[in-house]
Amino acid sequence: MHDIASEYVIQKYSKLGYRIIELGVDLRDREVQIENDVPDYIAETDKDLFCFDIKSKTSIGYFGWVNKRAVKHYRKLAECCDVQIYIIFVEINKMKKEVTGRIGYCSI
């Protein structure tokens, strides 16, 4: 589901003229403890720069639920690098494996 949500969000930002740079390393298939979480991507234009992490959810009722450890590390990164970091929530229809169109976000 994360890949579907990521593709959707990247496509939207690309259409708005943002260059998207992948930041994080995909560790979903590995049994590891992450020392310092980083957001999934950097989005930049000549005038704007921010980081974002994508969370796919099966219901908007789950929007806002983020791992406490990740938020702690994102806040540290935001302060250290003086950059805005956003969590983007994307609702995915699990059966159809597609984005429903309902999206939300919050700033770290």
Describe this structure in words.
- With 108 residues, the chain is α+β, with helices and mostly antiparallel strands.
- It is built from two helices and five strands, in the order H-E-E-E-H-E-E.
- The protein has a five-stranded mixed sheet.
- The radius of gyration is 14 Å and the shape is globular.
- The mean pLDDT is 87.
Give a topology summary.
Layout: H1 2-15, E1 19-22, E2 41-44, E3 49-57, H2 68-81, E4 84-93, E5 98-107
Parallel strand pairs: 3-4
Antiparallel strand pairs: 1-2, 2-3, 4-5
The pLDDT mean sits at 87
Q: What is the makeup of the main sheet? A: 5 strands, mixed
What's the gyration radius in Å? 14 Å
> What percent of residues adopt helix (DSSP H or I)?
25-40%
- Overall, the morphology is globular
The counted number of beta strands is 5
What pattern of helices and strands is seen along the backbone? HEEEHEE
Percentage of residues in DSSP E strands = 25-35%
Low-confidence region ranges: none
| Tally of DSSP helical segments | 2
Walk across the major sheet and give the strand order. 1-2-3-4-5
Intertermini distance: 23 Å
Q: How would you classify the helix and strand content by structural class? A: alpha+beta
